[in-house]
Design a protein that fits this description.
The protein is α+β, with helices and mostly antiparallel strands. It has a single domain, classed as Sandwich (Immunoglobulin-like), CATH 2.60.40. The chain is about 30% helix and about 25% strand. It has 7 helices and 13 strands. Strands 1, 2, 3, 7, 8, 10, 11, 12 and 13 form a 9-stranded antiparallel β-sheet that branches. The chain has a two-stranded antiparallel sheet with strand order 4-5. Strands 6-9 form a two-stranded antiparallel ribbon. A hairpin with a 2-residue loop joins β2 and β3. The radius of gyration is 22 Å and the shape is globular. The C terminus is likely disordered. The structure holds copper (II) ion. Copper (II) ion binds next to β7 and β11.
Amino acid sequence: MRKLHMMAVPVMALGMVAATAAGASAHEGTHSYQTELKALNGSGASGTVMVSIDGDQATVTEKVSGLADKFMDAPYPHVQHVHITTGAQGVCPTPASDKNGDGIVDTVEGMPSYGMIGTTLSTKGATDASTATDLKVAGMGGSYTYERTFTMNAKTIKAIEAGNGTVVVHGLDPATLSKKAAAAKSNLVPELPLAATSPALCGTLVAGQMDMPIGNPETGGGSTAGMDNGMIALGGGLVLLAAGAGVYMVRRRQVGQN
Ligand SMILES: [Cu+2]
């Protein structure tokens, strides 16, 4: 009897340690989330994003390739955000989200799926919505690696923890699109092709490390989100970039002739 008693104590103690560690991990320490970015709108791009959150500090590591490379003979600026949903589950849009049937799921059509901008993955400066359309701090060119540690706002952290944080990288190359889609004008900024403001990559962050199996984001019921004012500003920025040169329009015509 005495021997059994002695053995039971250490086993119980171990069990308690394990239970404590499991309980603490829900709120303390570093939590990792990741996603495989999938091409939207036939962008042909791909990528991965890893987000490590410790308190209010987030380290975002992102690798993308195959995006539109040039805009106006300069590296194509790809604004990128963590979009967040509150009511509905955050997901990536599917072709069914293309409500007007023009062949592109534009930024507005995608919002019922991935929600509003929670955090801007800017290369420097603010990471809230204030830099959402700042082309100078966007991802640049067709392939890039992004790594930054910053204070992440509480609403984005909360959404990511709930599985409702979705990384969206914007900016398509009209050359990769169907004639009809390439010729479409932006519903945000009519002077621009729809491609310029539309999402090219999307992935909803899930808890875990990079070796976790990733399923395709499912389409969600989702609530209807309003027009994203930030994305209107994005269009304005691109118009400024394009002003005076018209290279983008020329390229579009060439695409249309193919
Ligand atoms: Cu966005």
